[in-house]
Design a protein that fits this description.
single chain, 7 strands, 22 helices, disordered N terminus, Cathepsin B, Chain A, 3 domains, alpha+beta
């Protein structure tokens, strides 16, 4: 009997080809699949690169609002969410000496005790003052973005009489108080500073909205920081009222200012849902001792239940406020400056307020040596007092803890100044490099880089850095003055 393969050679060849076809796809199909895969990978890489490097933060946020999963494509935050440690020579003895170091200035705390008690609260609520208009313009009608809030449901307690105020500072405060007449502003992208100072000004009839303040305070809308002094300068230059900024505030002082109808803005830390640690401004509108709550009009979170204000406990306010050395801004009418001076007591003088802030931070660092903010605040206060060597030691200790939030040097530049003033230029540049790795939109970073480059004799590089700072914010006076000085050969 003949073999089947011998009798059907054609069928044998067909079966062999079919088996070969099952084992390996045609070469064209194989290369097509590889090409499609490469295109998909390349396209994904292009999307990630474009999202991270081409889109600006505001554009990224708009994409995330529509496609929340795109948040995963953002540049990763520094490991652990903390500012990378800058290696500095350890000087444990100098750091410990700061914990017991008395300042050369007389203690304003003792001086405050010898002064007369603050001006007593009036027996009736202060009527709303006349509208304040921009210094050189007639008032404009409110824009649609400015919403008038309904009156609060909870009336403040009656203010004590002058006789009651004489019994002491604590006794003179009502158990609850509220400032009426502040209009809320819901911030646009990255605009809490302009929005919040606009809220404070609205108490005095200010009709402009946050866009007007934003155009002047941050011409680059991606600018991550508007400093408290920039906000007070804006008030001085654009309105007929005044503003003062101080560090080292207390909860009691906040309540006293509210009880006397002085709008207060605090600079504080926040961690909103889906965000990590950021700096934030809030307008204080009320307090309630019975519940130990402050009420804020918040440009991001809104006005809370019943338009009463977003509530925060006294303890939480103090904890978050500590991150910014308890910095606060008071907006006031010139004719009430005497009253405000009495209320603020030792905080009225900027140097005394810095000393009070240092003493508070010193006390907190003694109680909790690992508290990075306590050491950082000691450094900030010492810079304000011109004590740069000790400030550098305090900043070293804060940084060495490895607990500072990675955005902290977006908002506070005391460490830059301390290191610069003591000649630690490499450390200034290290701070600048880390900031620039996390945000290109910080004009202060380029300013300090330019200061170092000028000090090192590289005038061309310094001029380029200062011009870049001015490109981000043409209203940055410090950078402009430094550039003019550089160009004049001074």
């Amino acid at each position: 009997m003949r073999d089947l393969h011998d009798t059907q050679p054609g069928r044998s060849i067909y079966l062999q080809r079919r088996d070969d076809g099952l084992r390996a796809p045609p070469r064209l199909l194989l290369w097509g699949v590889i090409l499609l895969f490469a295109l998909a990978v390349g396209g994904l890489a292009a999307v990630i690169l474009g999202f991270r490097e081409v889109l600006r933060p505001a554009q990224q946020q708009r994409v995330i609002d529509q496609l929340p999963f795109m948040r995963a494509l953002l540049n990763p935050t520094p490991i652990g969410g903390v500012f990378p440690t800058i290696v500095a020579p350890e000087n444990a003895e100098a750091a410990l000496s700061l914990l017991d170091m008395p300042l050369d200035l007389p203690s304003p705390t003792a001086a405050a005790a010898a002064t007369d008690p603050p001006t007593p609260l009036p027996a009736t609520a202060t009527p709303l003052p006349a509208a304040v208009v921009p210094a050189s313009e007639t008032p404009l009608p409110p824009t649609a973005a400015v919403t008038t809030l309904p009156p609060t449901i909870m009336p403040p307690s009656p203010l004590p009489s002058a006789e009651a105020a004489d019994n002491g500072a604590s006794a003179s405060l009502p158990a609850t108080a509220r400032i009426y007449g502040i209009r809320h502003q819901q911030q646009t992208w990255n605009n809490c500073g302009p929005a919040t100072i606009t809220m404070a000004l609205s108490y005095y009839g200010w009709q402009r909205d946050q866009s007007f303040a934003g155009d002047l305070l941050k011409p680059n809308r991606e600018d991550k920081n508007v400093s408290p002094h920039e906000l007070t300068d804006f008030v001085a230059e654009e309105t007929n009222v005044k503003a003062i900024v101080r560090m080292g505030g207390t909860l009691d002082l906040l309540k006293r200012l509210v009880a006397h109808d002085f709008p207060v803005v605090i600079e504080t830390a926040a961690m909103f849902e889906a965000y990590d640690w950021i700096g934030h401004y809030r307008a204080l509108v009320a307090y309630d001792d019975a519940y130990r709550l402050f009420y804020f009009f918040d440009s991001f979170l809104g006005v809370g239940d019943g338009a009463q204000g977003v509530t925060e406990t006294y303890a939480n306010v103090d904890r978050d406020w500590q991150s910014f050395n308890r910095t606060f801004i008071v907006v006031y009418e010139p004719q009430r400056e005497g009253i405000l001076r009495d209320l603020m007591a030792s905080h009225w003088n900027e140097e005394d307020a810095a000393q009070l802030a240092f003493e508070q931070a010193q006390l907190e660092a003694r109680r909790e040596p690992q508290n990075a903010f306590a050491w950082f605040n000691m450094g900030t206060s010492l810079v304000a007092l011109g004590r740069f060597q000790e400030a550098a030691v305090a900043f070293d200790q804060a940084n060495r803890s490895g607990k500072l939030p990675w955005r902290i040097h977006w908002y506070q530049f005391g460490a830059f100044e301390a290191y610069f003033q003591v000649g630690r230029f490499d450390d200034v540049l290290s701070l600048a490099n880390i900031n620039q790795n996390t945000s290109r939109e910080l004009e202060e970073t380029y300013y300090w880089r330019g200061r170092v480059q000028a000090a090192q004799g590289d005038r061309a590089a310094a001029a380029a850095s200062l011009r870049r700072a001015l490109a981000y914010n043409p209203n940055y006076d410090d950078a402009r003055q430094e550039l003019n000085s550089l160009n004049s050969g001074a």
